[in-house]
Design brief:
- By secondary structure, the protein is α/β, with parallel strands linked by helices.
- The protein has helices spanning 12-22, 34-48, 58-64, 77-84, 116-124, 139-143, 160-172, 186-203; strands spanning 2-6, 26-31, 53-57, 67-70, 92-95, 100-101, 104-108, 129-132, 152-157, 176-179.
- Strands 3-2-1-4-5-8-9-10 form an eight-stranded mixed beta sheet. A two-stranded antiparallel ribbon has the order 6-7.
- Helix 1 (12-22) links the parallel strand 1 and strand 2.
- The longest helix is centred in the C-terminal third of the chain and has 18 residues, at 186-203.
- It is globular, with a radius of gyration of 16 Å.
- The chain starts with a strand and ends in a 15-residue tail after the last helix.
- The mean pLDDT is 97.
- Bound molecules: NADP nicotinamide-adenine-dinucleotide phosphate.
């Protein structure tokens, strides 16, 4: 599957890119600047020992992919979506952004849409299947591609097939995915990240995650 990681040049994007590339998925790193996307892809390819990734600008990456993941700071979430709206029509969009309070990352300021994922659906419209996922996984853990990730990823979205596709992609990262139902579940999922940041600070680690228990095995 061709996956675009828009804003894939920062903290969260490279770990996802490396893990998906190692699992055999075709990954395109997007950036506001084509050259920066190319540079980060080249650095990650060097780490992989193979030219598995390519980099380009966000618009070209969105146009080329079947699934687009957006990993930009929440402050740039809506403005970046506006730039790739046309290219995402008929595709799956994975919303990762968390609306953290810029003054205190232990808190969120939820948008009027309800969550960042629902805000993405408002911007992108009905022709894009918006799925919320990966908001609660630490960039630090993702980046250490040889380490197992002991947490769950909650996946929510209005379309069952789109959710199933994203859950399969999460499993390809080596992470257990759980179906959390409709997109409005993002209202509960996104604030968990602020709690995890609080726990990381209290415990002086970068690795806090969540595990849901008591559900039947699927
Ligand atoms: N970091 C984590 O551990 C973590 C965990 C869970 C969820 N998340 C979520 O993942 C998202 C990305 O987090 P991150 O830590 O990867 O962010 P980041 O490193 O600060 O930024 C990622 C990329 O976003 C682009 N960007 C920065 N400012 C921008 C702007 N004003 N307009 C457009 N693009 C801009 C940059 O790419 P270019 O310069 O190449 O365009 C940058 O490399 C956030 O929404 C966060 O809530 C992060």
């Amino acid at each position: 599957m061709k996956i675009a990681i828009l804003g894939g040049t920062g903290e969260q994007g490279p770990g996802l890119a490396l893990r998906w590339a190692r699992a055999g998925e075709e990954v395109i790193i997007g950036s506001r600047q084509k050259e920066k996307g190319e540079k980060v892809a080249a650095e990650l390819n060097e780490e992989l020992g193979k030219a598995l990734l390519r980099g380009t600008d966000n618009v070209s990456a969105a146009a080329a992919a079947a699934v687009a993941v957006l990993t930009v700071p929440y402050s740039a979430h809506v403005s970046t979506l506006e730039t790739v709206k046309q290219q995402l029509k008929g595709k799956i969009f994975v919303a990762v952004s968390v609306p953290l309070d810029p003054e205190n990352a232990r808190r969120v300021i939820m948008p009027t849409a309800g969550s960042a994922a629902e805000e993405a659906r408002q911007v992108l419209g009905p022709d894009v299947q918006v799925v919320g996922a990966l908001q609660n996984v630490s960039a630090h853990l993702l980046r250490n591609v040889h380490a197992a990730i002991d947490c769950d990823v909650l996946v929510c979205g209005g379309d069952k097939d789109a959710r199933a596709t994203v859950m399969q992609l999460i499993e390809r990262l080596g992470i257990h995915a759980l179906d959390a139902g409709p997109l409005e579940a993002a209202r509960q999922i996104e604030p968990i990240t602020a709690l995890l940041i609080r726990l990381n600070i209290l415990n002086k680690v970068h690795s806090a995650g969540i595990r849901i228990t008591g559900l039947p095995e699927k």
